[in-house]
Amino acid sequence: MGDLFPFIEGGVTAAKGFKAAGEHLGIRKNRSKRDVALIVSDAPCSAACCYTRNLVQGAPIAVTRAHVADGHARAIICNSGNANTCNANGVEIAEGMCALVEKYTGVPAGDVVVASTGVIGQPMSLEPFEKGMKKLAAGLDENGGHHAAKAIMTTDTVAKEVAVEFTIGGKLCHLGGISKGSGMIHPNMATMLCFITTDVAIAPACLQAALSDVVKDTFDMLSIDGDTSTNDMVTVLANGLAGNEEITADGANFATFKAALYQVCAKLCRIMAKDGEGATKLLTCTVTGAKDKPTAKLVAKGVICSTLLKAAVFGADANWGRVLCAIGYSGADVDVSKIDVQFISPAGVVSVCTGGSGVPFSEEDAKKVLSEDEIDVSVQLNAGNAQAVAWGCDLTYDYVKINGDYRT
Amino acid sequence: MGDLFPFIEGGVTAAKGFKAAGEHLGIRKNRSKRDVALIVSDAPCSAACCYTRNLVQGAPIAVTRAHVADGHARAIICNSGNANTCNANGVEIAEGMCALVEKYTGVPAGDVVVASTGVIGQPMSLEPFEKGMKKLAAGLDENGGHHAAKAIMTTDTVAKEVAVEFTIGGKLCHLGGISKGSGMIHPNMATMLCFITTDVAIAPACLQAALSDVVKDTFDMLSIDGDTSTNDMVTVLANGLAGNEEITADGANFATFKAALYQVCAKLCRIMAKDGEGATKLLTCTVTGAKDKPTAKLVAKGVICSTLLKAAVFGADANWGRVLCAIGYSGADVDVSKIDVQFISPAGVVSVCTGGSGVPFSEEDAKKVLSEDEIDVSVQLNAGNAQAVAWGCDLTYDYVKINGDYRT
Fold it and tell me: What predicted TM-score, i.e. pTM, was given to this entire model?
């Protein structure tokens, strides 16, 4: 799972023909916090989306589903500070946001992807958009990706931007994205908000197939707190300005595109997990030797979701019994007596369990390994060749603090 | 779900013919902490057990399964401080504990229920039992229930004992239990350790049927942190000394017995939830108006398991959107647009959501209601007559503190 392609600057405006902006329009009280992002393509785009599987879904999800039903879109509008969910007039407001994008950018409302993130069930008004959309649209810039990344942040402490470049059929292509965490994240379809743009020419059905596949191995394998949000969405817009022959079927070009998409999404997962609410450490679980992929995934997700393990990792306590315990209730069909467990970090490797039983290890070494800020729990099931990775973080005092008083 | 029978003192020694003891034998370093409990019946007992569904199970579970396979047992031995799980010689040690019970009490080793709780994967020795079992057995007392309750405590802050009295066929009967939490608790079969004794005469098959049914509505509906332990077990011993005609089939007497068992288990759930690791508040979710019982249970469990809601309750923040969100991902098939939500506590009732959308409420009143130490989230689904209740607690700084350094 090494990185195939070079990372580049630019995030969501790294690809040709995309402009972005992020401004404070007044959804949030804090004037220094940008709260609305706008992303627009110069040319029509193939569009693909994955949505939260929560039964309770924000009004923007319903509106976006309708707008991308034809496989095309050209702009994305997203606010933070209010989820526009469980509001009686939510659809009206989401439609209104799209209409204002049309008014000030010329992109038809039916080609606009709309998203909201923030508190659920708070009244929301269209007024800030009516007043500020003109300014937002005027700020669209081919270097505006960073402002857009900042505007979609909620409790995130860092803006999240990743982009890569690669070639398809001799043409230089770009693919980049922005995302926001950092709580209410749990593997269940796309988690959190993520907007990706690319200049690759690709048919809508292929774009959707690539996204749906990649999401299963990336955003579905990311958990901060076990809560699946109501507003999660991953969107990819592909405008074809790289000039490659349009990808219309499986094959080498499709594989290259998917690899680039995977690399960007996996990197965003790492960044989001490390910036999980209150997190001090990135916690990954790498499972190898599974009899099949579903088993590997169940085990990896079970481990990174364990509240007790997350707290132990915060305390740099090598409580590996909690790893075994989590595997045991993960729902995976595994032979416990074959399991080996190691804790790995830049400070070294500590073997703690072999064949399902504890092995002696140096508490001092373990403390050193677990005191780093990127910890991998390596689980070898010794039952086959399938593998999986999942991303999470430690559970800290600050998670409780942030979420004990998020709304007021 | 009101209480049908009067609560009495005595816990696990409230029923006739049961003696108990709890001593420090040296499993734990802290000499002032009792760490082994012993419970013995004067007469042979029908026995029933429910076990954790974790694939990783402590050695004592395997030994107990074998010992109660014939539906009978007469004694219970349980240590805290070491889970005797993921140890290569675990079964040997658990068998050794039972043999020592036989040596000093005369109860055959094959009639002994054995349990352990504490850190997983730590080496364990039989030596403290060899040295101390004589003293423990000598201390068996018909008022010893409280010492036994103290000896099984781990991170619990209070000993957990409940007993009731009731009549069957004109005979006065007693049923009481002790249990220990308080972390690694999640609805999935029996959670935590719970030992119940009764002087009712009841056939083993009826006893198991009653326990299995009651567990589904009590311990299965209790979650502290989403982690299902490897060592959970609920055991009931019934020695028949109340002198009632033996219950051998469904009917009025069986119903009375089951109601008493439910009352004790439900009360223990409340006590355990309120004493959950780091908890400052008991959080219950009462679901009414469900189309069927499984739906009601899924919703109730989903709500009390939400990490985000638990943190909000700690902060007395009426973030009801998290209730809707949790219902949405609970897996229950519900019509979101019909859901009403209220927060209820001794300080009053606050309606926050009607028909799936927010309603205006006083933040001041909500703060007052949520500042109490027992909070009920009342969810009305308006889709039928089924109902369920689940028990949990808030998520606090202290949970993180306790679990960041539990082992060392």
Answer: 0.78
